[in-house]
Amino acid sequence: MTTTPDPEREQFAATFRALGPQAPTILPGWDAADLLEHLSDRERDTPVVMAARLPGPLGRRAMTAREDQQARPWTERVERFRQGPGRSPVGALDRLSGQGELLIHHEDLRRAQEDWEPRALSEDQQAQAWRALTLLSRISVRVAADITLVSPRGGLRLRSRRSAGSLRVHGETLELLLWASGRDEVAQVRVHGDEGALRALAEGRRGM
């Protein structure tokens, strides 16, 4: 069963189609085909991926099914992604969390291209990015500093129990989401803070 794709998934699928399977991403060692495979495994094919690791006939059948899926034409694989995960628990989680995984991975693909520019998000996409930021930043940012994320939609404070100082990170909501996921090479943000907090930022971790 499929559901009506949301605008972010539609745009992501269009980017996949336009760039092709060999397009680079900012993820080390991954091209567009690897990224699409990761998303498909996550959304629809987790049981097959797990079964393919098993010994015996069941594992071989699962591996064959996985190879058959990977061998399909690029347009078919992209269309399968565009249709969405249906009633998958992953789909429900993404809807609740503001499609954070799609927003981030779409930029992983877009921003690896030489001519990339920041997107103008719709109001709904901005709201999704804000929801994703409020949820994901609290578990993805592990820095011993009090951090305030400042966007046109408002501010978000992340407190640390062992704070070495305070930081303010300014940017559009999507940029802050990318920064919180550790994508410093492409996130367009401005970071201000005292010496202790900046040192804590360099020593801390961001990302899942």
List keywords for this structure.
208 residues; alpha+beta; two-stranded antiparallel sheet; 10 helices; 6 strands; 53% helix
| Biggest sheet strand line-up | 3-2-4-5
Q: What low-confidence regions span 5 or more consecutive residues with pLDDT below 50?
A: 48-52
Q: Strand pairing plus helix content: what structural class?
A: alpha+beta
Describe the sheet with the most strands: 4 strands, mixed
Number of strands: 6
Work out the radius of gyration. 19 Å
Description:
It is a single chain. About 2% of the residues have low confidence. It contains 10 helices and 6 strands. The protein has a 4-stranded mixed sheet with strand order 3-2-4-5. A two-stranded antiparallel ribbon has the order 1-6. With 208 residues, the protein is an alpha+beta fold. 31% of the residues are buried.
Concise synopsis of the structure shown:
The chain has ten helices and six strands. It has 208 residues and is α+β, with helices and mostly antiparallel strands.
List the helices and strands and how they pair.
Blueprint: H1 7-19, H2 32-43, H3 46-51, H4 56-71, H5 74-82, H6 89-96, H7 100-110, H8 123-140, E1 141-142, E2 146-151, E3 154-158, E4 166-170, H9 173-180, E5 190-193, H10 195-203, E6 205-206
Parallel strand pairs: 2-4
Antiparallel strand pairs: 1-6, 2-3, 4-5
Helix pairs in contact: 1-5, 1-7, 2-5, 8-9
